[in-house]
Amino acid sequence: MFSHAGKILHVDLTEKKVWEKPLPEDLRSRLIGGRGVNAKLLWDLVRPGIDPLSPENVLIFGAGALTCTTAPSSGRTTVTCKSPATNLYLKCSGGGHFGSELKFAGYDHLVIHGASERPVTLIIMDDDVQLAEASDLWGMSVRDTNEAIKKELGDSGIRVACIGSAGERCVQFASIMLSVYHAAARGGVGAVMGSKKLKAIAVKGTGEITVSDPERFTELAQRLRDAFLWDMQGRKYFLFGTGVFGAGVAYNYLRSPPDSSELLSGPYLIKKHYLKRHVGCFGCTQSCHRYTEVETGPYAGTYTLGPEFETFSSLGAGVGISDPETVIKANDLVGEMGLDSISTGVVIQWAMESYERGVLTKGDTDGLDLKFGNDQALLRLIPMIAKREGKIGALLAQGVKRASERIGKDSYKWALCNSKGLEQSRVETRAVKSYALAFAVNPRGADHLHTECIAAGGGTGEMRDLLERITGEHWPNSATHYPEIVKWHEDIYAAADSLGFCAFTCTSAMAILEEEMAEIYSLAVGRDVGEDEIMLVGERVLNLEKCFNVREGADRSLDDLPWRIMNEPLPSGLVTSKRWLDEMLDRYYALHGWDLDTSWPTPETLEKLGLDECAAYIRSFRGSAEEAKRLDGGCD
Ligand code: SF4
Asked: Are 416 and 250 contacting, i.e. CB atoms less than 8 angstroms apart?
């Protein structure tokens, strides 16, 4: 099977059983690989209504269809499960080398079922798959876990995915760390791994992946590498990472950042010699990962990846801190403990605002003075959350939605999550309207990594050309076509994630769009795949993810934004009103062929996309909902 390993590895932790299944051709042709195939496995394997932290949830790792080839930056790994944070669909994309190693070991996907009673490590050495006792690793940091496993197995080249203290304690926003530094971060994937008592997965593969037309594939891959390498946006990411954008929003979206927050940026890290080296994920010439070190002062010896834009904002400007060394230290702490830096920052900001408003007192915070800007409180609070320590650690470990529901007193008004319950990424969605719509409709919650619609800003000629192609209108009018822009980005993102491409290759750098994806995938698998088919696969994946949420009871009411974003205007008067959002949602659902009242994909739309299993479900679900409504009506 060209470009794919051709097998799915299943491991049942309850029964201690391991089995393989072939990757069905039907899945490969309809959903490509990575995120797409993961979504179908989730749909098939997870019964609606289960507790995400029960053994009934599955945890799926998927390598991209092009991973392990020379296609540039195609080594991303998708991790998929039902989210404990939202009780809905969840996928995360992680960098590093885990997915490529899994594929070299012979597997495109790994599905973890059940739960162990005692901590275990899963060890995959090609087709030798074993579970090992891991009680000695339980409680270890991410860095120590990596080192201990490599030492135990006598192989420093082995690739490890593991959880830290946060995952062990099922913190709602625990991450899975791929190696020491790459995070599959959002929605509590690490909590799902922790609930299964799976401390780590170690993988080593010695196999090969072949493509159908090696000569033409290599030639095209080189052309795409060059295009990516010399793309101006791409160069900026290489130099500064997403830190090129600075620190974004501050003080829980309450007020403007202080001038000193300029110190929180990629360029400043270089200027002050914090930056030590650049490293890339598997097969990436771009190497945008930048390692930083603090050499003197109270945090001397701290060494971490980034910080990136989201961390500068969530654990810097957002908590009222402008000192880069404190943010580097905080970034290291969340990585070591396996916490999502965005959600960690959001819950701490919510707690700080609650404290300043008198809604939380020192009696609630275990004596911590939780004022914005208190760096020591920030650094103390991160491990408390990861270990659910004290009243405040236990409260915040539930995530901002549940914490605000527990505290009440109108604190939902400054809880920066939407109704789905995921803490919002750090974009000012009162001003940046494309992201506002994208965040509202994202199946995993208010987050950027499903639909990074950077092009909507029209920052470069290429972006403006793209907007014209999507909307049929010239810049700047094209920039107001938010539903079309969001839908196009959703589709290409889902396709890129299924192929294994990094988002920086397509929606940011614009080096690899649907035409290039189609060309290189065709040469890889030996079948003519057009650019329309690539985008259709993206749309199919998104609809499948949406249907998973419908099956869990989601409807239009969950496609919203945080209260503050919709009710508290910026000083300039900008706000994203409910009325505006409703109008956009109508247009967005119509574009998708979804029902305007419920937001559910119609059976006809799903059948057109070849998702007959989802169409049948929606038909029966819609039928019972209508019947329930009729009976309800009868009672009035
Ligand atoms: S551009 Fe950066 S994040 Fe993307 S694959 Fe390359 S190194 Fe990894």
From this structure: no
Ligand 1 midpoint to CA 28 (Å):
25
Q: What number does the ligand 1 atom closest to the CA of 288 have?
A: 2
> What count of other Cβ atoms lies within 10 Å of the Cβ of residue 352?
28
Look at residue 568 and tell me whether its pLDDT is greater than 60: yes
Question: Which structure tokens are listed for 68?
Answer: 């392990």
Q: Which amino acid is at 281?
A: C
Å from CA of 279 to ligand 1 middle: 9
* Ligand 1 pocket residue status of 449, Cβ below 6 Å: no
The percent helix, strand, coil of the chain (3-state, each to 5) is 50, 15, 40
Is the shortest distance between the CB of 502 and ligand 1 below 6 Å?
yes
Q: 194-224 burial by CB neighbour count: b if 16+ within 10 A, else e?
A: bbbbbbbbbbbbeeebebeeeeebeebbeeb
Q: Is 369 helix (H, G, I), strand (E, B) or coil?
A: coil
289 lines ligand 1 (CB under 6 A): yes
pLDDT band at 633 (very low <50, low <70, confident <90, very high): low
Residues 6 or more apart from 61 whose CB is under 8 A from it? 38, 77, 78, 79, 98, 99, 102, 109, 110, 161, 201
Dist CA 471 CA 580 (whole Å): 19
Separation between Cα atoms, residue 421 and residue 398, nearest integer Å: 11
| pLDDT value, residue 632 | 59
The whole-number average pLDDT for the span 150-171 is: 97
Q: By mean pLDDT, which of 231-245, 493-507, 581-595 is the weakest?
A: 231-245
Alpha helix locations (H) across 318-389? 324-337, 341-356, 375-386
510 in helix, strand or coil? coil
284 Cβ inside 6 Å of ligand 1: yes
Instruction: For residue 378, give both structure tokens.
Output: 């920030």
Q: CB neighbours of 292 closer than 8 A, spacing ≥ 6? A: 269, 274, 275, 276, 303, 304, 305, 306, 307, 328
419 lines ligand 1 (CB under 6 A): no
Q: Indicate the pLDDT class of residue 635, thresholds 50, 70 and 90.
A: very low
- What does the block give as tokens for 216? 């033409």
Could you tell me the distance, in angstroms and rounded to a whole number, from the CA of residue 178 to the centre of ligand 1? 14
Q: What is the DSSP string of 221-249?
A: HHHHHHHHHT-HHHHHHHHHGGGGGTT-S
Distance 110 CA to ligand 1 centre (A): 22
Q: CA-to-CA distance for 71 and 293, rounded, in angstroms?
A: 31
**Better pLDDT: 615 or 237:** 615
**Is the model's pLDDT at 288 over the cut of 90?**
no
285 Cβ below 6 A of ligand 1: no
Task: Assess whether pLDDT exceeds 70 at residue 631.
Answer: no
Determine whether the shortest distance from the Cβ of 248 to ligand 1 is under 6 A.
Answer: no
